[in-house]
Design goal:
- The complex is a heterodimer of chains A (215) and B (261).
- Chain A has a single domain, classed as Up-down Bundle (Fumarate Reductase Cytochrome B subunit).
- Chain A contains 9 helices and no strands.
- Chain A is mostly helical and 215 residues long.
- The radius of gyration of chain B is 22 Å and the shape is globular.
- Chain B has 7 helices and 10 strands.
- Chain B has 2 domains: 74 residues, no CATH class; 167 residues, Alpha-Beta Complex (Sulfite Oxidase, Chain A, domain 2), CATH 3.90.420.10.
- Chain B has a 5-stranded mixed beta sheet.
- The chains are: A mainly alpha (215), B alpha+beta (261).
- The interface between A and B is large, with 41 and 47 residues.
Chain lengths: 215, 261
């Protein structure tokens, strides 16, 4: 939370009373990257469903009303356009997450004991949301986990896109056909995360406000 | 605004951080990042010049697809071979796939068929099947990947296209080899020259050691294991060495033109 400390220090240095300044929970770069990612992710998922429909891996297809692109060709155009937004945005996020120490400060440490006790607390309604700038152990696990899934879905996507040029990456995922399943499972994990994430954000509206206006 | 900037990257030198961030991008992103910006800029300029030409999602997507052609051409390594497989890995039965049913597949009489060679070549003499069969052939067992996502492993035997281009004296500095086919509604597809010269790009006459059956493109298909399936034309009638982008059956409908794998 160097951002908060830094800005608070500057504020006091300038003689602005700290009480009148609300604490910044989500810095601007996090908010910008978060919503850009959300937009890119929705485009990727909806066009991805249309692509899936052209050759389903399982015994179902996605209804046309929730897909993007109209047909396979259109969906591929969307998918391979939105991938740049997703990838560039994601790389900036990773770079800044490490460079600013945000990942280390916000997401670590994660301990099995902490995750279990916070899960229990959450399920019994005893988990505190007083300080939104501090993540509980379940949040830490989910946010760290979804970053890993995000990396995996991009890498498995690249290995499906370029199974010859990036054949070592494709081999790492167990070959072309297996990489398709990895890509799908990662999508399913992200969609599941989004459902929980959005539901919880709506349950604790001030967390949603923090992601929009910062505090 | 100053406060916002401080919040953006507190306590970190912004220019250094940006440098670091760019370094973590893969080469591909780094090199094409600017080019992408340029083409978006160019697009805005173009639409700005013509007031009747409104910016649309479709145009933006087409522009990005062109950008992706360039990225893929840059990624394409002429020395990278598509993975090969043992014969035991061959998919049986190998799927027939087209935009029409098998009953509508072209029926070509081998002895009447001639391959037309056009464009920037020294020798435009048409080739009979008998003549083509005399050229040295090689076999490959590679994975065919369809734009739809499914894949199948097959065994294809034929003459490397680059050997044939040499024999007919093609100008290999040209941009494309453009194929026209006998499929109903007229199938055609452009192949970029660097891919045409790839060692595994093949004029295929046999599938599974037997004369190419009607289902797989008799009398000749072009097998390109570094491209998606629709860039592997079947029932080929002619090839033209050209600098012009002449479009293709699927390419014109929106499939990415390079479609490399």
């Amino acid at each position: 939370m160097s951002s908060i400390t830094a800005s608070d220090q500057q504020a006091s240095a300038k003689g602005i009373p700290e009480a009148t300044r609300a604490k910044v929970i989500q810095p601007a770069w996090v908010r910008a990257l978060h919503w850009t990612n959300a937009f890119a992710m929705v485009l990727m998922i909806m066009s991805g469903w249309q692509i899936y429909n052209a050759s389903p891996l399982f015994g179902f297809t996605f209804p046309g009303s929730i897909t993007l692109g109209g047909w396979l060709g259109g969906a591929l155009l969307w998918h391979f356009a939105a991938m740049w937004l997703l990838m560039v945005n994601g790389l900036i996020y990773l770079a800044l997450g490490f460079a600013t120490g945000r990942f280390r400060k916000k997401l670590l440490p994660i301990t099995p004991v902490g995750v279990i006790s916070d899960t229990k607390a959450a399920l019994t309604g005893k988990l505190s949301h007083e300080d939104l700038s501090k993540y509980n152990q379940v949040q830490k696990l989910l946010y760290a986990g979804i970053i890993v899934v995000g990396i995996l879905i991009v890498l498995s996507g690249l290995s499906i896109w370029k199974p010859v040029q990036l054949q070592y990456l494709t081999a790492l995922f167990g070959g072309y056909d297996t990489a398709r399943y990895v890509h799908f499972v990662c999508m399913a994990a992200i969609v599941a995360f989004m459902v929980v994430h959005v539901a919880l954000a709506l349950l604790v509206p001030k967390s949603l406000r923090a992601m929009i206006i910062g505090r | 605004m100053r406060r916002l900037r401080n919040l953006l990257i507190p306590g970190v030198d912004k220019s250094l951080l940006l440098k670091d961030a760019v370094k973590t991008m893969p080469d591909l992103t780094r090199r094409r990042f600017v080019a992408g910006g340029a083409s978006f800029g160019a697009l805005t300029l173009l639409t700005g010049c013509d007031v009747t030409d409104q910016f649309s999602a479709e145009q933006m997507l087409k522009q990005v697809s062109k950008f992706n052609d360039a990225v893929q051409a840059w990624m394409f390594n002429p020395d990278a071979m598509a993975p090969t497989f043992p014969e035991s890995a061959i998919t049986k039965p190998f799927p027939f796939n087209a935009y029409y049913g098998l009953e509508d597949a072209p029926e070509i009489e081998g002895k009447d068929w001639k391959l037309e060679v056009r464009g920037l070549v020294e020798n435009k003499k048409p080739w009979t099947l008998e003549e083509l069969y005399k050229l040295p052939q090689v076999k490959q067992v590679t994975r065919h990947i369809c734009v739809e996502g499914w894949s199948a492993i097959g065994s294809w035997t034929g003459t490397p296209l680059r050997d044939f281009l040499k024999i007919v004296g093609a100008d290999t500095r040209a941009k494309y080899v453009w194929f026209q086919c006998a499929d109903k509604d007229g199938y055609n597809s452009p192949l970029d020259m660097r891919t045409a010269l790839h060692a595994q790009t093949q004029m295929t006459f046999k599938f599974g050691d037997e004369i190419l059956p009607r289902a797989y493109g008799f009398p000749m298909k072009i097998r390109v294991p570094t491209k998606l399936g629709f860039k592997n034309p079947k029932y080929v009638l002619s090839m033209e060495v050209t600098n012009d982008y002449k479009g293709g059956f699927w390419e014109d409908q929106g499939y990415n033109s390079f479609s490399g794998s």
